[in-house]
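Re: the multi-chain job from yesterday

Posting the exact lines I submitted so nobody has to dig through the queue logs.
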Amino acid sequence: DQQVKQNSPSLSVQEGRISILNCDYTNSMFDYFLWYKKYPAEGPTFLISISSIKDKNEDGRFTVFLNKSAKHLSLHIVPSQPGDSAVYFCAASAGTDKLIFGTGTRLQVFP
Amino acid sequence: SQTIHQWPATLVQPVGSPLSLECTVEGTSNPNLYWYRQAAGRGLQLLFYSVGIGQISSEVPQNLSASRPQDRQFILSSKKLLLSDSGFYLCAWSVRNQPQHFGDGTRLSIL
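And the result, structure tokens for all chains:
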């Protein structure tokens, strides 16, 4: 049972435009959500997080939105840059330090 | 600052051989430690986590085991590798209520 789902395996966006990566979850007990970025042959790097008491968190070009009623979160990258090309994982936890990861979305930003 | 070291970066092993992957963390005390596996085209699957020396929780039944002989050392082992053990193994650490931070991983190929 996949509790955290990233239904788009890949996304291609032009440089300067907005990238929107989506993530859905099924467990209503999840209270903390994170996005990680991963380059090939490297470990994931923490990008941004959001608590379930918020519906938006912003850090520079990155904004995460949480819609609890829809059990949906999204990551917006504006403006997108070629260096943003990577695999993005969303993850969630339910009151513990254990994370449940999605399967990832490969973002390609082209000139 | 905190750092995490994982080695080796790549490993090719024959079926039936033993395995030992090591992970160490510097710059923090009593971290939570985690082992993940990323199979080809899949998300990150939590294999083991540890909240202290000698305290190991297994998340999925498998051919692998983990040990934590020291506060900042986490070891992933197997007595006899299977073909299905191939994958990208990641070690991570965290402290309470903070995001997990990952090492650069070990690419394990079983022949």
